[in-house]
Write a structure and sequence with these properties.
alpha/beta; seven-stranded antiparallel beta sheet; six-stranded parallel beta sheet; about 25% strand
């Protein structure tokens, strides 16, 4: 997959393109993406077009938390069959572009869009004035076809990134994973920790996600960790490790079942499955060890390993 990021100087040819924010790449996003990928058989270039920074960043000093960081999104999409991912710079200039100019200058001149696949509520351009009706109005003029797709649903509720964020903040991983169509994932480089887990006889991996990564509540989760193309079951703690020195920044610590090797510097992906319990501060290391053993048993039962 070709990745075009932070760059406005590019020219694609004969594209089938889907447009959106694509935070989380949930089932609705996957449906749009699969539509454009299906046009590859007819000789089209399959393209996903999004903006590099979420619009919220222009309107507030507060950092917008993402279900998947940019690195995670690129890693996920690189395995899909998509030809090109465009993360277009979102600036005051692009924010102010008129919808008609967006169609002409970006969709037509830069993307050479012949097929445009979007959700039926897609809005674009200055003051979000552009919509499906406007896209279709210019279809004959510029020679493209518009495919407007109905929203995907889960349990009669429309699947959206905002709905997933709400469930994720509450730790409802079953709902999150159902709407994502795959387990929620945290990707990162394994860092050197305090090696306390090793002294307890339970060595762990530690990754520290960027501050704009939306994490579930602090607590313990049965997990599956991907190291390259191999997956290992385990137990993951999200939080600050209050019993063994209280970290200042929320981290992701994972104990892998039946694994003991040096992973420092390697990039891993940790998938979370269900919320077991909240993060606790124990009075003694022995109490922590006992609880960790119980967490491991919980995870093994969850994954039907015992």
């Amino acid at each position: 997959m070709k990745y075009i990021t932070g760059n406005t100087d590019f020219k694609l040819n004969n594209s089938a393109v889907t447009l959106g924010k694509f935070d989380g790449i949930h089932l609705g996003h996957q449906y749009l993406m699969n539509q454009v990928i299906s046009y590859k058989e007819q000789g089209y270039t399959s393209v996903m077009f999004s903006f590099l920074y979420h619009p919220y960043n222009l309107f507030s000093d507060k950092e917008f938390e993402q279900i998947y960081t940019q690195e995670e999104k690129v890693a996920k999409l690189s395995c899909t069959g998509l030809d090109v991912l465009v993360d277009y710079p979102f600036t005051q200039e692009t924010r102010s572009i008129e919808p008609e100019d967006f169609i002409k200058e970006i969709l037509v001149e830069k993307l050479d869009a012949k097929i445009i696949v979007v959700g039926n509520d897609y809005r674009f351009g200055h003051n979000r004035r552009g919509d499906i009706t406007l896209l279709k109005q210019y279809a004959d003029i510029y020679g493209y076809k518009v495919i407007a797709c109905e929203k995907r649903k889960w349990q009669e509720h429309i699947i959206s990134s905002s709905a997933i964020r709400a469930e994720l903040k509450d730790g409802n991983m079953e709902a999150v994973n159902a709407m994502l169509g795959q387990p929620y994932m945290i990707r990162g480089e394994v860092l050197h920790g305090r090696r306390i887990g090793r002294t307890l006889g339970m060595p762990t991996t530690n990754i520290t996600p960027p501050t704009n990564k939306l994490l579930p509540p602090c607590g313990v989760y049965p997990s599956k960790t991907w190291i390259g193309k191999t997956a290992y079951y385990g137990v993951t703690n999200i939080g600050y490790k209050p019993t063994v020195g209280a970290e200042s920044r929320k981290g992701v610590e994972t104990y892998l079942l039946d694994f003991d090797a040096d992973l420092y510097g390697k990039v891993i992906e940790v998938e979370l499955f269900t919320f077991e319990r909240s993060e606790l501060k124990f009075d003694t290391i022995e109490e922590l060890q006992k609880q960790m053993r119980e967490d491991i048993i919980f995870a093994k039962k969850y994954f039907c390993l015992i």
